[in-house]
Structure formats: C-alpha cells, structure tokens
Amino acid sequence: MLSKNELEKILDAALEEGGDFAEIFVEKKFTTGIGCEDNRIEQVDSGVDLGAGMRVIKGDTTSYAYTNDLSLHGLMQVANIASRAAAGSRQGTPVKITKRFPQFDFDIELPPDMVPVANKVEQVERANRAARRVDERIKQVSVGLGDVIQDVVMANSDGIYVEDKRIRTRFVVNAVGSAAGQIQTGFESLGGTQGFEIFRRYSTEELAEAASRRALLLLEAAPAPAGKMPVVMSAEAGGTMVHEACGHGLEADLVQKKLSVYGEKIGQQVASPLVTVVDDATIKGKYGTLRFDDEGNPGQKKTLIDKGILKGFMYDNLTAKKSQRPPTGNGRRESFKDKPIPRMTNTYIAPGKDDPEKIIQNTTYGLLVRKMGGGQVNTTNGDFVFDVAEGYMIQDGEVTNPVRGATLTGNGPETLTLVDRIGKDLGFAIGTCGKDGQGVPVSDAQPTIRIKEMIVGGTVHVSPSSHMIRRL
Question: How far is residue 82's CA from residue 53's CA, in Å, rounded to a whole number?
C-alpha cells in the first residue's frame, strides 16, 4: 500500500512535535456476509473498509487519529494532527524501519474472493433446509456466512515494519423450536483463519441439524435445579469458562489499572495444580490465530498459569513498556479506527490425563455442561456468570435428564482452585470478544473438567466495567 520510504516519512512527521513513539496501522478489509431468514436469503452484502490509524505517545499521553485518505498527503496530515498532542522538542535520528516476516503461513486453499457468491449462497441454503427438516417443531431458522480478507501494513518508530494478509471464515446457525407454549433456541457455529476449504472439513448440514436438535432437546428439558453442586464441563462445551474466569484478568492493561483480581499474584497459586492456562496465537486454522498482532509483533504461545501458578500476563507494546516486559503479541484492535489494547487470541486450559467418560462415572451427583452460551466477568473481583446452552443432570455416575435455563455463577480464582479432574481431550469454540467497545475474533478451549462445587441457577451482579464474549 505504501513504500518503506513513505512510511518512514510519515513516522518522522508524527514525531515532529516531540513524541516518544509513533505508529501507523493501515488496513484494507474486504467483507462478505450472507444471511438466510424465513426460508429465504435476506442479505448478500459485500464491502471494503479502507483507512489508517496513527498513534503518538509522549510520556503517559496518547494521541490517536485516523483517516480514510491513504494518499501520502492525507497521511502526513493525520501524522501532524496526532503529533500535536506531544509537547516538547524532537530528539533522536530519523526513523528507519526493517521488515519483519511471518514465522508460519495460513495455508489458505480456497480464498473467499475466489469463490463465487452463488456457491456461498448455496452453502447457506443447504444448512437452512437441513435445520428445518429435523422436526416440524422447528419454526424458525437463521443461517449466516461471513468471510473477511484483511490486508494490513504496520510500522512504528521502534523500527518495526510488517505487511500481512489475514483471512477468516465463519458460519452460524440458530434454530428456534416451539411446542406447548415453550420457545427454545439452539445454536452452532464454526470458523477459523481459513478460506472456503473449511466447508470441505466440516459439514454445515450436520451443524444445522445439531442446532435444531438442541432446540428440541430444550423443549423437552426440565428446569435446571438451583443450588451448589459439582459441575462437569465437557470439552465440547468450549472454553467460555477459561476466557471469562481468568482470561480477561490476565490482560496487562487491566492489571496496571488495578482492575484485575490477579494483579499482585505473579508466582502465587491461583488455580488447582491440575490447571495450566495457555494463550496461543500460533495454532493454525483457529479463529484467534495471528501471524502478527496489530502492532507488528509476532503471534506467540505463552503459558499464563502453569500447574496452578500464575506466570505472567498478556501485553501489548504500551503495557509492556510500563512493566518493562517484552510484548507478548497480544496487541489487538477491531479496525484502523481503534488503538490497540491487550487481548486474548486462542486461550485454553491444557489437557490432563483423565478419561473424560470416567470423570462422569466418578461423579455421584451434579450438572453436566455440554454446551456453553455467553458469559461476563467483573475483572476487579473475578466474579462471573455463564449461560448453559445444553446441560444434563448426573446421577450415580450416569447422564440422565436434560435441563434448561441453567446459569453458572462464581469467582474465577476460587473456581479454578476447585478443579479436581481434567480430561485428556480438548474442544474449541469461537466467539467475538468485547472489550472497551471493540470486538475481536477469538477461540477458547478446554478439556473435560470437573469443578467440585459451583452455584447453579443463581445470578451475580456484573458491573459496567465487565467484559463479555459473544458466541457466534
């Protein structure tokens, strides 16, 4: 999009008024969205989002400006505007940037722009038909397919220069069942840093059928019991718990603002010795995978909690400098209009050694969670609340009747210390994680785990400073 010399010239202009650090993020994003409602295609949208954001930091002051004008003249103007927030005189030599190259490739087989829209529409229509033919009690189905091709250029006054192409595809099915005055919804989704080849690997018709069966299951389910009880969370439930119970609290900006319950606990036991928590941006094909974060730092695998001991946090450039730590490749932004902040990528509890079936068989009574909905967390004290999208009671080591309307409430550090069994399996889910008004794609995962005691059916107050993940 811009030459190396032009980027250096723009960064020099941004530092003209005395800034300590300058950064430019240029983005060209192609999106396609197809939606089916009421048995017909209601939406076929495509568009291009184009622009650049400029950040200048002076001491504790940050200035951010953005523009849709990607001419050299337009970007120089934005650089001059951003630079005025930094007072003082210019010091140092002119900026020189060096290109960084990715450590791995996405191996995209069928880029979305090489697939005719008619093929995408057909994929959506097939899923719609599959969901509806499961049972006549399925009254409404919505299916969505979306893909993104994002070309980015990042450069900063520390000498980083990165060009990257990112491709993501997602598919979502919601099925609504109705009978005897009851209305219930089942949902399923898939997605990743993949092109249209994702539909060779996964059947969207099977996905749609699963969404309908979940809605029907909930129609026949009994209300969930309330109270404290053991909870077994299967691997297929996805990693909402790890994302909410500890993930946000391990983002360095919240730690530095003293908004994290984990703030002063490096080196301390914050979870059961069975629990290891990892954030890994390098897992090929996953929805939160990044070759580079949105500041040009390589995506990394980092262990946050190791056998229950808190080892570290997730940093972007700004928080890393404040803590005198290296960045961890977690600086992310929704678009060029937003400044980067520390965010998760693919976050999971590492598998253990237990047979998942034996975990259930060794549970006398409790709740089995097969599918999680969304969740929220108050990072200041660690309190969280999750919705259970599919759950069953466990009696004498056997899975019995399904239940509906269950919620799980608790406190992140307390809950993680109560994990007493961890399976050798691992299941991923995708979502859009919201924080500070920005949404970014993430994956989360966990093995089958047992928590000795959780509150089922209760509620917890979540403050306006809470964070959430929306399941796609």
Answer: 10
Instruction: Enumerate the β-bridge partners of residue 431.
Output: 442, 471
pTM exceeds 0.90: yes
Question: What are the tens digits of pLDDT across the range 331-347?
Answer: 999 999 999 999 999 99
Name the CATH superfamily for 4-220.
Answer: PmbA/TldD superfamily (3.30.2290.10)
Q: Scanning the structure block, which residue is given the tokens 């622009």? A: 51
Q: For 130-166, what is each residue's pLDDT tens digit?
A: 999 999 999 999 999 999 999 999 999 999 999 999 9
Query: Could you give the CA distance from residue 193 to residue 191 in angstroms, rounded to a whole number?
Result: 7
Q: Cβ contacts of residue 222 below 8 Å, gap of 6+?
A: 401, 402, 403, 404
Please state the domain extents for the chain: 4-220, 223-471
Q: Enumerate residues 6+ apart whose C-beta is below 8 A from 444.
A: 238, 239, 240, 242, 243, 247, 344, 346, 347, 348, 428, 429, 431, 469
Which backbone phi and psi does 352 adopt, to 5 degrees? -110, -145
The phi, psi pair for 407, rounded to 5°, reads -125, 155
CB atoms within 10 A of CB 129: 15
Residue 470: is its pLDDT beyond 90?
no
Residue with tokens 């140092």: 92
Q: Which of 146, 149, 111 is nearest to 29 (CA)?
A: 149
Interatomic CA distance for residues 231 and 393, integer angstroms: 9
AA identity, residue 103: Q
